Amino acid sequence: MPAKIEPANVIPSTLPRSPSALRWSGIGLAAASWISAAFFGMFIFAFYFGAIPTGRMDQWNIFVPGLYDQRNPAALAAIAAHFATGAIVLILGPVQLIGELRVRRPWIHRWLGRTYVWTAAMAGLGGLGFIASKGTIGGAPMNIGFGLYGVLIVVAAIQTYRHARGRRWEEHRAWAIRLFALALGSWLYRMDYGFWLNVVAPAPLGHLVNYRGPFDIVMSFFFYLPNLAVAELFIRAGRVLSQRFFRIAAVIVLNLANLLVIVGTYNIVHDYWGPAILRFLLGRGG
């Protein structure tokens, strides 16, 4: 197949055209993840910002005790900025991966990209501001894990934008993939907890209400470091996926991940996100 010539402002791909099974497995996982992340974004607006007009911001502490503290306006402003920009990042991220949009409407990709990287940076800075002002409920392990996550988000956002401005498309693509993998961390954190507490270990095993149990400590890092590892594999995956064995393995892994996302999303939407969104839509607050 002849090489496809792409415009200069389009992110080139290092992956060969995938066989049908691999391609559709990837599309299925991307679609399931986007729908799930969109639900989470709607939940953030419905539950957290929906509580503002009703004056019930103390309900922010239902899922994370101590999150709302009117005695600490700096922490409150930081976490509000984190939530607002984080919801935008979750919804915009998958749009930026649509190849047809980059090819046919590059100006849309550019402007959405600018919005994406700067809101991602603001989400990271908001989280760091909250940690600096108040600290997390989980103490030192969570402070370190979440603090590193915020720093990585800010660095990836700056690097994505910097390489795009410099028209270094391969570097831009690599950092955009890293940023996307990190941005999913906030969603994956909730998904992992929902899956663990509702499917694997409803006891709950390793989780404490102060988020200082063994599972909580692992999760302070686990919700984003594996994502980065997968992102690095994807960035370098061109030669690997040209071999049949690895293509078959990739299909199996993608479909398994898709199943986990669907099961996890159903549980958490049914028990938490869905009711909060419905209450907001019906005008009953978050």
Secondary-structure element string: HHHHHHHHHHH
**Molecular shape:** globular
Mean pLDDT metric: 81
Query: Over all CA atoms, what is the radius of gyration?
Result: 20 Å
Give the total of domains.
1
Treating each run of at least 4 consecutive H or I residues as one helix, how many helices?
11
Please estimate the helix content.
over 70%
Uncertain segments: 1-18
Number of beta strands: 0
Percent strand equals under 5%
In terms of structural class, how would the helical and strand content be classed? mainly alpha
End-to-end CA span: 53 Å
Compact description:
By secondary structure, the chain is mainly alpha-helical. 72% of the residues lie in helices and 0% in strands. It has one domain (20-281).
Structure, described:
This protein has 286 residues and is an all-alpha fold. The N and C termini lie far apart (53 Å). The chain is built from eleven helices and no strands. It has helices spanning 20-49, 51-54, 73-96, 99-104, 106-133, 140-165, 169-183, 185-200, 214-222, 225-235, 244-281. It has one domain (20-281). The chain is globular.
